[in-house]
Design a protein that fits this description.
Helices cover 44% and strands 16% of the residues. It has one domain: Rossmann fold. It has 242 residues and is α/β, with parallel strands linked by helices. It starts with 6 loop residues before the first strand and ends in a 9-residue tail after the last strand.
């Protein structure tokens, strides 16, 4: 229960990595605000924490791209405590498409969810963290944020940006004892990947709980030495060309 009474705000918390992270944070004693654009999924995760774990949670619905939604959701999270102590920017989308076929609208959508969303959420909670001189921000990048590959230029560009943002913000917030890190998963067997690539061999792929373990470990006091960096969570899997 190393996170007892800490308030955690998790985007994309209704399913996959986000859901498992919410549950694991609750098991560590955190009060969890589950932010999802799918209200029923977010409510189910919050309900599981309350009824099955005896924890505290709220579901806050909205779009990470929308400033008003983010502001409202952070205010909803403060029903659990005076401020947000832990921010997990997990919400993300992937586009598998050749560059020359990618539309401006598709490019902007990927950047808005994967980069703008994290920026808006961090901007909403950092003033609270600075005032308390304490906080943790974990941004989900990808192993594709460290390498190139075909048919995913929009996605790779966004995930490189997440790493750069994490390193820059981590350095800027060091004086306020706020740690910021990026986590870069290898292939993970999630609903999103099942929808994108149902026929791909998923042998050796990670499970959502495997990533949740990495994310929550970085939130614990034992990881106080780690900030302004990117952690690769790769397992035995490897990126594949879908």
């Amino acid at each position: 229960m190393e996170l007892k009474n800490k308030v955690a705000f998790v985007t994309g918390g209704g399913r996959g990595i986000g859901r498992e992270t919410c549950i694991l944070l609750a098991k560590q004693g955190a009060k969890v605000a589950v932010f999802s654009n799918n209200q029923s999924e977010g409510e189910e995760t919050a309900r599981f924490i309350i009824t099955e774990l005896g924890g505290e949670a709220v579901s806050v619905a909205g779009d990470v791209r929308n400033e008003e939604d983010v502001t409202s959701a952070v205010q909803g999270a403060q029903k659990l405590g005076s401020s947000v102590d832990i921010l997990i920017n997990n919400a993300g989308v992937m586009l598998l498409k050749p560059f020359h076929e990618t539309t401006v609208e598709e490019w902007d959508f990927v950047q808005d969810v994967n980069v703008r969303g994290g920026f808006l959420c961090a901007r909403a909670v950092v003033p609270q963290m600075r005032e308390k001189q304490d906080g943790v921000i974990i941004n989900l990048s990808s192993i594709w944020g460290t390498k190139g590959g075909p048919d995913r230029s929009a996605y790779i560009a966004s995930k490189y940006a997440v790493i750069g943002f994490s390193k820059a913000l981590g350095e800027e917030l060091k004086p306020y004892k706020i740690r910021v890190n990026a986590v870069c998963p290898g292939p993970v067997d999630t609903k999103m990947m099942e929808e994108l690539a149902p026929d791909v061999n998923k042998e050796n792929w990670l499970r959502p709980i495997d990533l949740a373990n990495v994310i929550v470990d970085l939130c614990l006091p034992k990881s106080k030495a780690v900030t302004a960096t990117a952690i690769e969570a790769f397992g035995n899997g490897r990126p594949v060309n879908l």
